[in-house]
Design brief:
Largest sheet: 6 strands, parallel
Radius of gyration: 19 Å
Number of strands: 16
Helix content: 40-55%
Oligomer: single chain
Strand order of the largest sheet: 3-2-1-4-5-6
């Protein structure tokens, strides 16, 4: 586990790049959490950022003290966490990887503007395709790997637990299971380690009369993978659940929780994979990435994880970094 090295930055100052649906909703979630003393919204559309800041500030009497305002990149100075949500939106007929070249070009403009004013923050990437863009951010920023984090499969893992909880008729908070790999079409559900109250899912299903057949498991995995596509088709974008996922990651950092979350970070030999960012259960604290955990996956899951990495590495090779 990493030795903690706290920066000189304000631990409760958070900058959000991008004041669209995800960025603004993330600011709202952080207000509700009461974990930030200052939130800065930065957007190419300054009127949008100012309007969102005004709207959020009008609810300040209902939450713990927090200052929300619109700003520019110079306001990233002394922020402890900089959350990046800016980028082109995923369209109904696009995969997350289809977005990669458009958003890589956008990040080539954003990242140098951030690092000009702040060299000590933790960078938290949310923009899709999040794993590739986490890797892009690491390369463009030159930051230590511990301080470049992607939201990864934190949301996917929550969707996974939610669907299992409905299948078994218990609260989602009592389901322990992970989605690993890419936040996208090659993501991997880790069924072999999924448990409820310490009981393996295979043993718990007969108790709760749940359907744990391979067919139903495949349906659950597909629903997790396709959730964003279905939401985008119906309402144009996703932002509530991802904002809650981002707020969870931020809380783990600010409160130095040593929480285990499936964030995306640089692989360094995990299951034979290196030089790409992917999601594995990871200890997250005030240093950012404290330790990436290698789980005792079964062979099928390990192979799927490696294939997920190969897919992303092939995409990364097409980028001019």
């Amino acid at each position: 586990m990493n030795i903690k090295c706290h920066s000189k930055n304000d631990p409760n100052k958070i900058a959000i790049i991008g004041a669209g649906g995800v960025g603004a909703t993330t600011a709202y979630a952080l207000m509700i959490e009461g974990i930030a003393s200052e939130i800065i919204l930065i957007d190419i559309n300054k009127d949008r950022a100012e309007g969102e800041a005004m709207d959020l500030n009008h609810g300040s009497s209902f939450v713990k003290p927090v200052e929300v305002h619109a700003g520019d990149y110079s306001d990233c100075a002394e922020a402890n966490i900089i959350i990046i949500t800016a980028g082109a939106n995923q369209q109904p007929d696009e995969t997350r990887l289809d977005l990669v070249k458009k958003n890589t070009e956008i990040f080539k403009q954003i990242i140098p503007k951030i690092t000009k004013y702040n060299q000590d923050a933790i960078l938290l990437v949310v923009t899709n395709p999040v794993d590739i863009l986490t890797y892009v951010t690491l390369k463009l920023s030159g930051f230590p790997k511990e301080r470049v984090i992607g939201s990864g499969t934190v949301l996917d893992s929550s969707r996974f637990r939610s669907l299992i909880s409905r299948n078994c008729g218990i609260a989602a908070s009592n389901v322990h299971g992970y989605i690993i790999g890419e936040h996208g079409d090659s993501e991997v559900p880790v069924w072999s380690l999924t448990n409820i109250a310490g009981t393996k899912i295979d043993d718990y299903c007969p108790i709760c009369d749940g359907d744990c057949s391979s067919n139903n498991r495949d349906q659950i995995a597909h629903k997790v993978k396709d959730a964003a596509y279905e939401i985008i088709e119906r309402k144009g974008s996703t932002f509530y659940a991802v904002a809650l996922a981002v707020a969870r990651i931020v809380r783990a950092i600010i409160r130095d929780e040593n929480a285990i979350l499936t964030v995306s970070s640089l692989m360094e030999g995990n299951y034979g994979i290196d030089d790409i960012s992917l999601s594995l259960p990871t200890i997250v604290n005030s240093s950012g990435i404290a330790k990436v955990l290698d789980l005792p996956l079964n062979k099928e899951e390990k192979d799927q994880f490696v294939n997920s990495a190969i897919t992303l590495k092939e995409t990364a090779k097409t980028l001019d970094l």
